[in-house]
């Protein structure tokens, strides 16, 4: 479980999060939705520890492993898809080449694993970002606009994977500027505006 109690954050003189109270439970998909600048991305950054609260408490298990897509995923554009995932995998040393190739297959990127990422479409880059978020079997998935540019066939794959991860009792948070209507996937819908839960 992750608990946010009365969380507030000020950046560059502006309050970007105000009195956030939220509980995220294992086996639950939470959707954060709201216009750009509503505070969704800041909240994801707070949950995974990229920023810390100025006020309030963030309570979570320190052993949690995170799989994260926040804003536009950054890759080495002149390197291949496989190189990028392999480079990230060497940081924590939790998975090997076989696992990476298996995830590339799942996201329909195996055939282009040796192509440079700069040649990829937006949807392909997004699927590569999803690969890196899922591949190390995280306890918590934080996905900022994860469906950007993905076609219907691959969207089905992503939805099915999220269903599987939910059954494994993962904590899953999806941020989107629109409400997502996926039958049975989302358990909690939370609207944000101007850094507040409304």
Automatic annotation (TrEMBL):
Residues 2-198 form the ABC transporter domain. Pfam families: ABC_tran (PF00005). SMART domains: AAA (SM00382). Keywords: ATP-binding, Nucleotide-binding, Transport. Signal peptide: none annotated. PANTHER family: ABC TRANSPORTER ATP-BINDING PROTEIN ALBC-RELATED. This is ABC transporter domain-containing protein. It comes from Alkalibacterium indicireducens.
């Amino acid at each position: 479980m992750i608990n946010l109690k009365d969380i507030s954050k000020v950046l560059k003189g502006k309050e970007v999060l105000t009195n956030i109270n939220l509980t995220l439970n294992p086996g639950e998909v939470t959707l954060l939705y709201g216009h750009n600048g509503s505070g969704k991305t800041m909240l994801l950054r707070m949950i995974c520890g990229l920023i810390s609260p100025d006020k309030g408490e963030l309570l979570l298990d320190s052993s949690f492993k995170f799989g994260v897509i926040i804003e536009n995923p950054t890759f080495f554009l002149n390197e291949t898809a496989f190189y990028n995932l392999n480079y990230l995998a060497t940081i924590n040393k939790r998975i090997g080449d076989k696992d990476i190739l298996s995830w590339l297959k799942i996201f329909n990127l195996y055939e282009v694993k040796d192509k440079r990422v700069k040649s990829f479409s937006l949807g392909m880059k997004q699927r590569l970002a999803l690969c890196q978020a899922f591949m190390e079997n995280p306890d918590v998935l934080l996905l900022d606009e994860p469906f950007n540019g993905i076609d219907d066939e691959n969207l089905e794959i992503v939805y099915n994977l999220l269903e599987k991860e939910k059954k494994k009792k993962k904590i899953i948070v999806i941020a989107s500027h629109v409400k997502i209507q996926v039958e049975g996937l989302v358990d909690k819908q939370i609207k944000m505006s101007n850094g507040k839960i409304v």
